[in-house]
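User: Here's a protein and a ligand (nicotinamide-adenine-dinucleotide). What would the complex look like?
Assistant: Let me lay out the input and then the predicted complex.
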Amino acid sequence: MATYLVTGGAGFIGSHVCEELVSRGDRVRVVDDLSTGRRENLDHLEGVELIIGDVADPKTADGAVAGVDYVVHLAAIPSVPRSIEDPLSSNHANVTGTLSVLVAAQRHGVKRLVFASSSAVYGDSALLPKHEDMPTQPLSPYALQKLTGERYLRLFYDLHGLETVSVRYFNVFGPRQDPASAYSGVISLFARCFIENRPPTIYGDGEQTRDFTYVRNVVDGTLRACVSPGAAGRVINVTCGGRVSLNVLFNTMRGMTASTVTPNYTDARVGDVRDSQGDITRAQALLQYAPTVLLEEGLEATMAWCRDQTFHTTPV
Ligand code: NAD
Ligand code: UD1
């Protein structure tokens, strides 16, 4: 039994990481400022210690890290458009927050820190699938902030011998991804539209592609990255390895519902990457990782969860 700190553990991916750790019998502490996360995301889990606070505050980070074996650092403002509208606040959470957690992890001598980076760091590249040795080309403050986080992790590994791993997630989806926020992932937004029989919005021509990954796969890859021997100091894609266009996604999800809506097409989003697909060779080799839940099964589970929700907010 080990003790894990999950920063951002009240959020979408974080709550699934906590769920898996609790089911394994590990001890779990969460630090979260509840900016996009929700206390209720952890209600079903026994024994999770919740510290409410900002990880960018050194005292909060230090208190949260004290006494843990592993840190899974997920706390961030994850939206690309939000980082363009308000780069300062996303820099605070995504860069200062990461540095603050690293300093605390080094001070307390944790066994390993795993950081949720993003495929956004690749930007637009003609070569697919994207592999970790390709040049990076951030197209948004969010992407640059994630790349900065990765570089800080590597620096702490080189300078201080702190074991760090950056896992690059692609487009993660699943239950508890907030369908009530305009900044949320596209699948949760589409799911809510279909359930309410409202037309989803597609930015651009809908032919942009994404490597949509059900959340259980990234939980598995992330927890493997905490303990896999050859992973320290590395950057590793953790995703499914396929790609689907927004138009195909729309049709697939509509086919799962009784909805007859058609999408509203509007201008492409500034800072949007055109195509995204990850190469998982390194994750297979270093983490013995393989995705176990594929797109359609994940979409069914997400739609089922969404149908059970009562939405108290104005539709987005
Ligand atoms: P989320 O918004 O549900 O989770 C982020 C959590 O961090 C929230 O609970 C939020 O309250 C918390 N948080 C934000 N700023 C904080 C701060 N300063 N101090 C403490 N807590 C803070 O988003 P998510 O989709 O679960 O993303 C989790 C991580 O995975 C993020 O780092 C994100 O950048 C990364 N990621 C997500 C995706 C995706 O497709 N969802 C893809 C690539 C990377
Ligand atoms: C997402 C993640 C980001 C992560 C990145 C990795 C969220 C909110 N963002 O960014 O944290 O680092 O993947 O690849 O989880 N779209 C529509 N209609 C909508 C919403 C979106 O057409 O209503 C389009 C967007 O223009 C984009 C695609 O769908 O082309 C995906 O958008 P989104 O789900 O916001 O994710 P990313 O910006 O790819």
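Summary: Residues 87-108 form the longest helix (22 residues).
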